[in-house]
Automatic annotation (TrEMBL):
<dbReference type="Pfam" id="PF08241">
    <property type="entry name" value="Methyltransf_11"/>
</dbReference>
<dbReference type="GO" id="GO:0008757">
    <property type="term" value="F:S-adenosylmethionine-dependent methyltransferase activity"/>
</dbReference>
<keyword id="KW-0489">Methyltransferase</keyword>
<comment type="similarity">
    <text>Belongs to the methyltransferase superfamily.</text>
</comment>
<dbReference type="InterPro" id="IPR051052">
    <property type="entry name" value="Diverse_substrate_MTase"/>
</dbReference>
<dbReference type="InterPro" id="IPR029063">
    <property type="entry name" value="SAM-dependent_MTases_sf"/>
</dbReference>
<keyword id="KW-0808">Transferase</keyword>
<dbReference type="InterPro" id="IPR013216">
    <property type="entry name" value="Methyltransf_11"/>
</dbReference>
<protein>
    <submittedName>
        <fullName>Class I SAM-dependent methyltransferase</fullName>
    </submittedName>
</protein>
<feature type="domain" description="Methyltransferase type 11">
    <location>
        <begin position="41"/>
        <end position="135"/>
    </location>
</feature>
<dbReference type="GO" id="GO:0032259">
    <property type="term" value="P:methylation"/>
</dbReference>
Length: 288
């Protein structure tokens, strides 16, 4: 199922970018033009957040996504940050609309858990030159901090989504540096709507650590996405979740309504900004 066949405008507005060190690291292990290849291919690009970030380091980037609506809402890089050209194409990860042996880097940011991975690996081998790099990136569970606290501890990447078996023990609210609003978000995410997450979400919660990765593994940097959000920003982000779509499709929109009402009571003034952050996990490998 394509969970993001529509809603591209909301996705472009509400999903965070990756920290700059992610692209800097990739440019170090896969320098522009490595192996004589001209292209970087960003697969499952959605509305182009990561594609546009890659274009700040690479002269030719193409984003590929199966959703025409997502591509219609591509969020172009602001302020002339691109150093080269960017193109977009509609297509599946398992059948990329890319010629053979033209890419020095293939990326998948917050999308690989939706792929038929064995078929995607075959496509990676087909479109890359020898010695190219493939990189999967994902950000895990959001933590909402108290006002004025910009130094939240990095959240755990596992044990919060009950998609099978018992959940691992959770950190205490104090350990996570959160107040009542942050705790309400954690309860909503990890308990109230857990049954509505597609099973693929567990791969995100595990930081892709359980993916069978058939390439020579390279080191990846530790990174964290940090933002300062108003309540509307948070609720907009929640609205882009596959679980939220599932909730509405099954007629349980009251769960979202109760959560939004509780957060409005606990958040503080609507214009108040709170620190939010996600842990970033990566799998990076060299294609033989």
């Amino acid at each position: 199922m394509n969970w993001f066949s529509d809603g591209g405008a909301d996705y472009a507005l509400s999903r965070p970018d990756y920290p700059p060190e992610v692209v800097r690291h990739l440019a170090g292990v896969a320098p522009p033009g490595a192996g004589g290849a001209g292209w970087v291919v960003d697969v499952g690009c959605g509305t182009g957040q990561f594609t546009e970030q890659l274009a700040t380091a690479y002269p030719a980037v193409i984003g590929v996504d199966p959703s025409a609506d997502q591509l219609a809402n591509v969020r172009a890089a602001a302020g002339g940050d691109r150093i080269g050209r960017v193109a977009y194409a509609c297509g599946a990860a398992e059948r990329l609309p890319i010629a053979d042996h033209v890419a020095s880097l293939v990326t998948a940011a917050q999308s690989a858990h939706w792929f038929d991975l064995p078929r995607f690996w075959d496509e990676v081998r087909r479109v890359t030159v020898p010695g190219a790099v493939v990189a999967l990136a994902t950000y895990g569970k959001l933590v909402v901090g108290p006002p004025g606290d910009a130094s939240l501890p990095v959240p755990d990447t596992g044990g919060t989504i009950r998609t099978g078996g018992a959940a691992a023990p959770l950190q205490s609210d104090r350990d996570r540096g959160i107040d009542a609003a942050g705790a309400r978000f954690q309860r909503f995410y990890g308990e109230e709507i857990a049954r509505f997450w597609p099973p693929e979400r567990a791969m995100v919660e595990n930081g892709y650590s359980d993916i069978r990765f058939p390439f020579e593994e390279l080191a990846a940097p530790a990174a964290t996405i940090r933002r300062s959000w108003r309540l509307d920003d948070l609720l907009g982000y929640v609205g882009t979740w596959s679980a939220t779509r599932n909730i509405h499709a099954r007629g349980h929109g009251d769960l979202i309504d109760r959560f939004a009402a509780d957060m409005a009571e606990l958040w503080g003034p609507p214009e108040l900004r709170r620190p939010v952050q996600w842990p970033v996990s990566m799998r990076v490998g060299r294609v033989g």
